Amino acid sequence: MNEMQHYLTLNKDHVVPHFSIGWSDLLNHYNIVQVKEIWFLYCGGGSFFISIGNVLNSTDEYPAFIRSSTKPNETTYFDVVLSEYTAISSQLTLHKDFGDYLRATDLKFVMLCNETIKCVQSSVLCRGPRKPSVKLGRGWKEFCKISGYKNGDTIRFKFDGTLSSNLIHVRQIDPY
Predict the structure, then answer these.
(1) Closest Cα to residue 140, out of 95, 85, 98, 103?
(2) Which residues pair with 104 in a beta bridge?
(3) C-alpha distance across the termini of the chain, in Å
(4) Which one, of 150, 39, 167, lies nearest residue 89 by Cα?
(5) Predicted confidence (pLDDT) per residue in 36-93, tens digit
(6) What is the pTM of this model?
(7) Helix (H) or strand (E) holding 156
């Protein structure tokens, strides 16, 4: 690394891409301590131009593709309060609006990805039409366990705004 060049390594994961080496050095070099908007422009030959913008003060200001974004009209999210049962169960029955949204995707599996970028595939179980319900099935219990979720936790399931992606960012939030 010199004044103008920083070497970063991308993990090349298509589900959850992130920089695995050099990112902390870049942030420390420019003394970036708050979340900022950062733009990457691919220049070819493995080179990128990086532009760092203003401090973002609210999650509503984050670009929609960032997992903690709550940008109105561009992100869709659903909050669920876990009970003693749902935090250890092999299935999670979704509330009607969340279930209807997931049913509209016609997905059979989703990737649940937590804040530490640990992802677990979970089945989507749609029942109906007489008594329609949607549940997260196989994978849900394992996801709760690796994420450390427990009774009383409020967790947010965030979609990037397109119904075609099976990636759901899940994180614990402060209760209302």
Answers:
(1) 85
(2) none
(3) 44
(4) 150
(5) 667 777 777 777 777 776 666 777 776 665 656 666 566 788 999 999 999 889 999 9
(6) 0.62
(7) strand 154-159
d(CA 41, CA 111) in angstroms, rounded, equals: 28
Cβ neighbours of residue 97 closer than 8 Å, sequence gap 6 or more: 78
CA triplet 169, 171, 174: central angle to 5 degrees?
145
Average pLDDT in the 13-31 region?
Answer: 76
For residues 103 and 110, the answer to whether their CB atoms sit within 8 Å is no
Per DSSP, what are the bridge partners of residue 171?
A: 156
Return the bridge partners of 77, or none: 158
Cis bond leading into 175, ω under 30°?
A: no
In Å, how far are 6, 145, 147, 156 from 153, measured between CA atoms? 39, 13, 11, 10
Looking at domain 76-173, does it have CATH number 2.40.330.10? yes
